[in-house]
Amino acid sequence: MMLLGAENLTVRIGGRAIIDNVALSVGHGELVGLIGPNGAGKTTLLKACLGLIRAAGDVQLMDRPLARMTPLERARAVAYLPQDHEIAWAVAVRHIVGLGRQPWRDCSAFGDYAGGQIVARAMARMGVEGLAERRANTLSGGERARVLIARALAQATPLLIADEPVAGLDPAHQIALMEVFASLLNEGRSVVCSLHDLGLAARWCTRLVVLSQGCVVADGPPSAVLRPEILRRVYGVEAFFGHADGGPVVMATGLSKK
Ligand SMILES: Nc1ncnc2c1ncn2[C@@H]1O[C@H](COP(=O)(O)OP(=O)(O)OP(=O)(O)O)[C@@H](O)[C@H]1O
Questions:
Q1: Which residue has the least CA distance to atom 30 on ligand 1?
Q2: pTM greater than the 0.90 cutoff
Q3: What is the pLDDT along the chain (258 residues), one digit of tens a residue?
Q4: Which domains does the chain have, with CATH numbers?
Q5: Where is the ABC transporter domain positioned along the sequence (predicted)?
Q6: 131-155: pLDDT as tens digits
């Protein structure tokens, strides 16, 4: 079963194809990094896969047409972390994370017990247990991001779609987050996340999809995708490629000569 299957996906805004005939499929146990320059269409593609914007083409979630799923069915299939990490409400962090349980409210045979455990686990995974009673609108940017990721984890969906989840996180929290994502794969769950950090993409993702001007220009394992000619063509950068303990290292070192 595919968790996500998108075909012939096209998004037109103001007469321009922002997403141009894209195919994207995600199976179980994949950590897919969506990379590409600013304005390539990453956010638009993720939103189209979630049914959040109008798109032509076919999207299936767990082998079912997205268009025919109810909002509740969608919420049980996929969790979404938007790029904007705003929390306007002055409510306790544990309530924000608890919102992730909303799609499952009526189906626990044990009342709130199982849901409470899942919320606690999600907060522990993201290291925000100590913030449980804090008002969410008093958090730092990085804390807010981690709380919202915990909320998405509490939704306990097979698929998590995260738009730039590491933005605003310090290096330790970036790595911790990628470790959390990787740990979901053992449970058969999958993550699709847009990333700007090629080093994280190289080291943690099982697969990279490169978007450029609304088109997928590469799709494969990081070692096949993060090649000098692709980075030069797509980003206009030269990069350092190396190896360190535990995996590959990629870092943009300069702009390519025009
Ligand atoms: N509602 C809209 N109206 C006009 N243009 C739009 C709209 N939404 C997106 N675009 C344009 O579509 C293109 C793709 O935007 P998108 O946000 O998907 O890119 P992105 O790859 O996520 O970029 P970034 O890395 O900067 O976040 C951009 O040129 C953007 O200006």
A1: 39
A2: yes
A3: 899 999 999 999 999 999 999 999 999 999 999 999 999 999 999 999 999 999 999 999 999 999 999 999 999 999 999 998 888 889 999 999 999 998 988 765 555 666 689 999 999 999 999 999 999 999 999 999 999 999 999 999 999 999 999 999 999 999 999 999 999 999 999 999 999 999 999 999 999 999 999 999 999 999 999 999 999 999 999 999 999 887 889 999 999 987
A4: 28-54+68-255 (3.40.50.300)
A5: 4-238
A6: 999 999 999 999 999 999 999 999 9
How crowded is the C-beta side of 92, counted as CA atoms within 13 Å?
A: 9
Closest-lying ligand 1 atom to the alpha carbon of residue 14: 4
Is 46 close to ligand 1, i.e. is its CB under 6 Å away? no
**ipTM of the shown complex:** 0.97
Closest-lying ligand 1 atom to the alpha carbon of residue 36: 21
115 class by beta-carbon count within 10 Å (0-12 exposed, 13-18 middle, 19+ buried):
buried
Rounded to the nearest angstrom, the distance between the alpha carbon of 47 and the centre of ligand 1 is 11
What is the 3-state secondary structure of the chain? CCCEEEEEEEEEECCEEEEEEEEEEECCCCEEEEECCCCCCHHHHHHHHHCCCCCEEEEEECCEEHHHCCHHHHHHHEEEECCCCCCCCCCEHHHHHHHHHHHHCCCCCCCCHHHHHHHHHHHHHCCCHHHCCCEHHHCCHHHHHHHHHHHHHHCCCCEEEEECCCCCCCHHHHHHHHHHHHHHHCCCCEEEEECCCHHHHHHHCCEEEEEECCEEEEEECHHHHCCHHHHHHHHCEEEEEEEECCEEEEEEEEECCC
